[in-house]
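A quick aside before the break. I want you to see a complete sequence-to-structure record at least once, exactly as it would be stored in a machine-readable document. Don't worry about memorizing anything.
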Amino acid sequence: MSAITRTPGSGKPPAPERPAPAPADGRSDPLGPAGPHRSALTRFALLRISRESADLAMRNLFHLRRTPGLLVSCLVEPVVYAMLIGYVFGSSLGGDAYRSYMVPGLIAQTVAFTTTFTTVGLSRDLEQGMVDRFRTLPVSRVSLLLGRTTSDLTTCVASVAVTTACGLLMGWHPHTHPVQVAIGFLLVLLFAFAMSWIGVFVSLVCPNVQVAASVGIIWLFPATFISSGFVSGAGLPGPLSTVAAWNPITSLANALRRLFGNTPPPGFRLQDNWPAHHPALYTLAFSALLIAVFTTLSTWRYRTRTSR
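That is the input. The structure line, written in tokens, reads:
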């Protein structure tokens, strides 16, 4: 300890010197709002989450490669629905013209139903203790969930490819520029990513795989069929017509029809509302809303479930 010097003629030591005040802009604090360390830490956190998510996504894909039976339902269901709706019901709804108009709705339905793959996959990891093993590692909660939704986009791409192939075999084909077709499929992938977060939340609130599989499929049937995916929403009775008008599956199907240049068959009444006039914009906005809401809810539910 340094000795205290006394001022001559005074019995009290001098007052300690006060440090100079920090600049008002916060540059002296490395963690201040304008400090370089804050932005560096943020970039490091984002890079870490991206790297962890990519690693977990690859783990899910390797697991899928070892169990190819998990892909059977995702690859067979589009063929079954294409045959049933396109030929069993399509013959009385407009024939070839209806089948061409139906394919965008079939793609929208396929994207919605691949949500169950996310639900079952994450529920299985939770039930088998795989998530508990990840908890012992320094892995972000968001990375675990983001890795699952990212890897499941591969399943969605495979399902959409099978659905598109069925449409081509039934006589459907786009009538627009390839750039518009590419934009349409990118919109499909965005909507699929948003829907997969609903599957994540369902798996986190259900106690086991059996319940998650049942709950994950129950809500999809009314969501996909109370829409303009296969029939005219304007012809639905009462409030169902309003539900179909604002259903995002309707807007995705209508956006694809515009981007692919598929016109409705004779006798189809089209709805006259804002989503019907701006289907692509409505799909983009609704997808962003789903991602924002269900990433927040899923992260919260994952934290509360795994903290017991």
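Two observations worth writing down. Residues 90 and 121 are 34 Å apart (CA to CA). Residues 1-10, 19-34 have pLDDT under 50 and may be disordered. We'll return to this after the break.
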